[in-house]
Amino acid sequence: MRALNVFKAATLGAAVIWAAGCSTTSTTTEGGEGSMGGQDGSGSASSYGVDGSGVSGGSAGAIDQLQTVFYFDFDQSVVKQAGFSDLEAHARYLANNPSASVRLEGHADERGTREYNIALGERRANAVERLLVVNGASSSQIETISYGEEKPAVMGSGDASWAQNRRVELKYVSR
Amino acid sequence: MRQILISLCLLMMATASRAELVVEVTQGVSEPSPVAVVPFGWSGSGALSEDVAKIVEQDLGRSGFFSTLPRESMLSFPTREGDVYYRDWRVSGADYLLTGRIEPTADGQVKIDVGLYDVLKEQRIPLANDIVNSGSGQLRDAAHYISDQVFEALTGLKGAFSTRIVYIQAERNGDQNNYKLQLADWDGARPRTVMESNEPIMSPSWSRDGRKLAYVSFESGRPAIYVQYLTTGKRERIQSFPGLNGAPAWSPDGNQLALVLSKDGNPEIYVLNLASRQLQRVTHHYAIDTEPTWAPDGKSILFTSDRGGQPQIYRLDLESRNLERLTWEGNYNARGRLTDDGRFLAMVHRPTGGNFTIAVQDLKSGRLDILTEAGLEESPSIAPNGSIIIYATKQNGRGVLSAVSLDGQVRFRMPSRSGDVREPAWSPYLH
Predict the structure, then answer these.
(1) What phi-psi label fits residue B292: left (phi over 0), alpha (psi between -120 and 50 degrees) or beta?
(2) How many secondary structure helices (H) and strands (E) does chain B include?
(3) Most buried among A19, B43, B200, B219, by the most CB within 10 A?
(4) Are residues A153 and A139 in the same domain?
(5) Which residues of chain A have a CB within 8 Å of the CB of B356?
(6) What's the domain range around A72?
(7) Are strands B131-134 and B110-118 parallel, antiparallel or unpaired?
């Protein structure tokens, strides 16, 4: 399974880095985001806007149709109504497939301070996690991480870019 | 005649590479003092690796306090007091004059003999050390040391030319990201990479002795806090709980690290004793508490919290646990940094309806001054002499470093050759 191999590669990468930690300059060459999800943030962002209504849950194919990026207002961590039905469908899928798991990556736009934005990204990821859990997923199936403003989906400053960068990306680690 | 030896600087083990950042002064004091730095004489054989006088001239010019006389306008090139004709320098418009001569010494080092003169009074100005002994590979360090002395003699302010900065440089090649933690002289010269990763690096913080850095790295796929020794490159993962591990800040005595963990559900400030590894939670609130910084006396911690609905800066007394909100103007005040005397608080500030600026608040009077206006400023860091704040901003869509004096009179920027440059942290005094 691809996702599993990817996870191994990342773990190995981390070990390599740790071993390299004693040299003057540590170089990380493995275990990057590309290998974790197979996709960069900007790639995932383009999947926005797919309506998940009518999905009954169960088959792995069904979740491919669901929205995986959820957007937020400035300095806010309230999940917008528009994302509810797809999140419920993800939750149903997780409930029906106990071996499936997801990683929620919280992000912020570039405005404001970096450490505050990391906290904000975590708050957003936690808000999505809560919605999944109240809809039947187990918290053990969900891993959250915040990147704050460190991994924008879209480069550039301005309302349009910022709106796309304030997001939580839902990525299946295993299905 | 007082002497000093500039010994091998342990921080600089790598060979000098091309500067990525260069200082461009955009605004100086309204009447900068004209100073002439005469090319230094050299009585040894071969050419020296550095033009020491040029480095001193650049330091003084980049401080914003001085205008420097171009060499082509100089009528003579004296290297000692006896050769100085004050009338020539008055004609050239210089108020102050610096001469120097460099001689090889028996042990393969060099001796630099400098003289500073008041042209109008026609007299020599005493320096703490007018003879500087240096390794031939440490000429840049010797030059910065001379600049520090001249600056202090002429302005009364301690110079910070011998200090360094660290910063994060991020580059994107296709879908591959590269993050570097860079160390350079204050003016961007002699950059070297302290740490490099494909995953984000954040929040570099200097220990008060200037020997260690704490920072956040996502190299394992999750954020963790590391401490790295600059001399050896040896490093240690200090904290990697589930959730956030962020914003490390050294206590003034170097024994503790304030940091942010969200292992208990939301971001809280903790103090880690580095020797015993004991962790003490110091904030207790469901809001975001982050960006701790220590008061210079080590008795209180300032931090950002949105417990009032918007991010504001608070001070927590560690003994009494008394909590005080410090900022009241605008709807976003975050990431505070104090001057060494504890009086001035530099921060990211957003006036209601405005953009993100760097502001400074006088904690004695409560007065807040907005120092910048570009709109996406962050990460203020104060030079150890308390005169200049370096910060990150955006220019033509790219992250760049800029600086402003606490009184708003002097401004410079540091455009980079490549990538986004951000999160500058100014070192303490290193000598």
Answers:
(1) beta
(2) 3, 33
(3) B219
(4) yes
(5) 111-112
(6) 39-174
(7) antiparallel
- Per-residue pLDDT tens over the stretch B44-61: 999 999 999 999 999 999
Number of domains observed in the structure of chain A: 2
Taking the Cβ of residue A95 and every Cβ of chain B, the question of whether any pair is shorter than 8 Å is answered with no
Mutate to test the interface with A, among B244, B286, B381 (most CBs of A within 10 A): B244
Query: Percent of chain B beyond pLDDT 70?
Result: 97
Which DSSP letter does residue B12 get? -
| Radius of gyration of chain A from its Cα atoms, rounded to whole angstroms | 17
Phi/psi region, residue A156 (left: phi>0; alpha: psi -120 to 50; beta: rest), is: left
Strand partners, B281: B270
B3-8+20-155: CATH number:
3.40.50.10070
The yes/no answer on whether domain B164-426 falls in CATH 3.40.50.1220 is no
Amino acid at position B428, single letter = P
User: Is B202 in Cβ contact with A155 (below 8 Å)?
Assistant: no
Strands (E), chain A: 69-71, 101-107, 142-148, 167-174
Element (DSSP H or E) covering residue B149: helix B139-155
Looking at the structure, tell me whether residues A149 and A118 fall in a common domain.
Answer: yes
Averaged over B121-143, what is the pLDDT? 94
Higher-confidence residue of B42 and B7: namely: B42
What pTM did the predictor assign?
Answer: 0.86
Closest CA to B42 of B79, B82, B96: B79
Q: The tokens of B411 are what? A: 């401004």
Which run of H or of E encompasses A150? none
Burial of B360 (0-12, 13-18, 19+ CB in 10 A): buried
Query: What's the mean pLDDT when you consider all of chain B?
Result: 93
**Structure tokens that stand for B128 in this block:** 């703490």
Q: If we measure between CA atoms, which residue out of B329, B221, B288, B361 comes closest to residue A36?
A: B221
Query: What is this model's ipTM?
Result: 0.91
Q: Does A33 touch chain B (CB under 8 A)?
A: yes
